[in-house]
Amino acid sequence: MESAVSGYMRPETLDDALALLAQSGGRVAAGCTDLFPATAARALQGPVVDISRVAGLRGIARGDDGVRIGAATTWSDIVKADLPPACDMLKQAAREVGAAQIQNAGTLGGNICNASPAADGVPCLLALEAEVELASATGLRRMPLESFITGPRRTALKQGEVVTAIHLPHPALAGGSRFLKLGARRYLVISIAMVAVRLEVTDSTVSRVAMAVGSCSAVALRLPAVEAALIGRKANHTLPDCVDADAVADALSPLDDIRADAAYRTGAATELLRRAVADIASEGRAG
Amino acid sequence: MNRPMDTCTLTVNGQRQVLPADPARRLSEVLRDGLGLRGTKVGCDAGDCGACTVLLDGAPVCACVTPLGQAEGRSVETIEGQKYTPLQQAFLRHGAAQCGICTPGMVMTAEAYLRGARAPTRAGAEEALGGVLCRCTGYTKIIDAVMDAAPGAVAEMPEPGRAVGAAVARLDGAAKVGGTEAYGADVVPQDALLVRAVRAPYAPASFAFGDIDGWAADKGVRVFTARDIAGTNRFGVIPAFRDQPALAEDRVRLAGEAVALVAGKPAIIETLDLSGFPINWREDAADRPVHDAHPDNLLIAGKVRRGMAREAMADAVVMVNGAMRTGYVEHAYIEPEAGVAWMDGETLVIRACTQAPIMDRDDTAAVLGLPPEAVRIIPAATGGGFGSKLDVSLQPLIGLVALKTGQPARMVYSRAESMASTTKRHPSDMRGTLAADAEGRIVAMQFDGDFNTGAYASWGPTVAGRVPVHASGPYFIPNYHAEARANYSYQPISGAFRGFGVPQAAILQETMFDDLANQLGMDRLAFRRLNALRDGQATVCGQTLYGVGIGACLEALETPWQDALRRADVANARGGHIRHGVGIASCWYGCGNTAIANPSTIRIGLTGDGRLCLHQGAVDIGQGSNTVIPQIAADALGLPLAQFEIIGADTALTPDCGKTSGSRQTYVTGSAALRAGRALRVLILKQTNMGPEAVLRLDRAVLRVSDGEREQRIDLTDLSEQAHGYVLWAEESYDPPTQPLDEDGQGVPYAVYGYGAQLVELSVDMRLGTVKVHRITAAHDLGRVINPQLAEGQVEGGIAQGLGLALMEEFIPGRTENLHDYLIPTTGDMPKIETIFLEVPDPEGPMGAKGLGEHVLIPTAPAILNAIRDGTGALVTELPALPHRVLAAIREAGHG
Question: Which of A106, A121, A115, A112 is nearest to A31 (CA)?
Answer without folding.
Answer: A106
